[in-house]
Amino acid sequence: MNYQHNLQRLLLKIPHGKVSTYREIAHAMGMCAYRFVGQLLHKNPHPDKFPCYKVVQSDGKLGGFALGDAEKIRRLKADGVSVKNGKVVDFTHKFHRFS
DNA sequence: TTTACGGCTAGGT
DNA sequence: AACCTAGCCGTAA
Questions:
Q1: Distance, angstroms, CA A93 to C1' C3?
Q2: Is residue A39 part of a domain?
Q3: What is the domain count for chain A?
């Protein structure tokens, strides 16, 4: 059982049309190293196979994406989450909490 | 062992 | 609201 696996499991638990944050994920993994979550996502061997684009910053800003911000926006939109001015629209309502 | 560095965050200007 | 700063915690080198 490693962090990667854990992370992927959590990603898959995010409902369609919703997003989560680095901080929330870190907490759900039983740690407080939210920055580390970013590293894991960046090193994700299959960015195409896991919804890593569904993870944004705690204030609703996009954060980053290995394949580029534009691509992240595209995927979010395709998932039912619209982005405007680099922020998730109606973020608080689209935020999914694991607990 | 130490250093540098992240797809960050919270807090202050 | 936008920008800056200092913490944050595991890795990798």
A1: 26
A2: yes
A3: 1
What pTM, to 2 d.p., does this model score? 0.93
**What's the CATH code of the domain at A61?**
1.10.10.10
How many helices, marked H, and strands, marked E, lie in chain A? 5, 4
Q: Which domain holds residue A60?
A: 3-94
Annotated active-site residue in A14, A29, A40, A52: A52
Nucleotide nearest to A34 (CA to C1'): B8
Q: Are A32 and A26 in contact (CB under 8 A)?
A: yes
Cβ < 7 Å from nucleic strand C: A 3, 31-33, 35-36, 39, 85
Q: What is the pLDDT of residues A64-99, one digit of tens each?
A: 999 999 999 999 999 999 999 999 999 999 999 998
